[in-house]
Please model this.
Amino acid sequence: NPPNTQMGESSGPARWNCRAKGGSSGFKVAILGAAGGIGQPLAMLMKMNPLVSVLHLYDVVNTHGVTADISHMDTGAVVRGFLGQQQLEDAVTGVDVVIIPAGVPRKPGMTRDDLFNINAGIVKTLCEAIAKCSPQAIVNIISNPVNSTVPIAAEVFKKAGTYDPRRVLGVTMLDVVRANTFVGEVMGLDPREVDCPVVGGHAGVTILPLLSQVKPPCSFTQKEIDYLTDRIQNGGTEVVEAKAGTGSATLSMAYAAVKFADACLRGLRGDAGVVECAYVSSQVTELPFFASKVRLGRAGVEEIYPLGPLNEYERAGLEKAKKELAESIQKGVSFVRK
Ligand code: NAD
Ligand code: LMR
Model:
């Protein structure tokens, strides 16, 4: 194997071996499900991230091809591929951040919860390996249904005695990315200048955009609020239907996942003021998990911000969101405890 695609260490010349061990600075990141629709562009974008020195790519199929391909990019990170369950523990050992996009995506007509039966077991198995081999890692969970897979991960870590709620984060960044884009379209603003918090969870009515808190401050008509709320809550379904049976959002998700992982890495580096929305263990509501703005630091989630003032429309949305979220959380917890 050439040095950057080894399954294990390279047997190349000394200088190669030196390089293949990875740079001394930078973080080690593992992607589990790296050969998938999200995994591939996510791996490519993480290979471009200057904060990453070593990139582990794990999947149950096709990791060799993706690893060989991505390893030819002339960026700093060293790429290592891991294939199949017997290499899972090696894939997660010693990494700082694990990103999990493993699992099946939706087809038209399905809810995210319809993925539970397959993806719950996948996330459980992956988290068992993380608990054993990399209990200090920050875990970014993308696999759906996020509202349940995050509680599953937490229960697995609790069982293993390694649970640190600051280190388990459900990735809801795509909802924020969509909200910024759609608000930008409606208001004629550059989406890069829009900041729309999205709280709650990551499915249907649990996705609660706080349009009253958008920055720069925007004055929306009720029609615009209805349109934006519906579009943000159903953005995933919009893509699933457009892809007509071939999958769900992959490219925008990879973009969002990298934006979020980069925030986690900047937090780990000790940067001040890194704040993003994420679905985490939380006391912001009476539910044990909730998405809201969090500050990321060396320990992972270092502060969880309250929701701030909500208008009547948002308070009604919050009640609906909490009802559905409570069931999804319980379903995830019971899956591991049963
Ligand atoms: P995909 O089918 O294209 O890729 C999934 C990958 O996971 C495949 O390569 C598959 O081999 C791999 N995989 C399956 N079982 C595995 C296991 N046990 N260990 C490791 N890898 C395994 O699907 P996708 O489009 O990449 O979507 C992946 C997941 O992400 C889905 O559950 C989807 O619903 C979810 N998703 C979440 C968000 C979000 O905002 N959080 C957005 C988009 C998609
Ligand atoms: C999304 O929001 O795009 C993802 O959760 C995938 C899906 O099933 O909608």
In short: The first helix runs from residue 14 to 20.
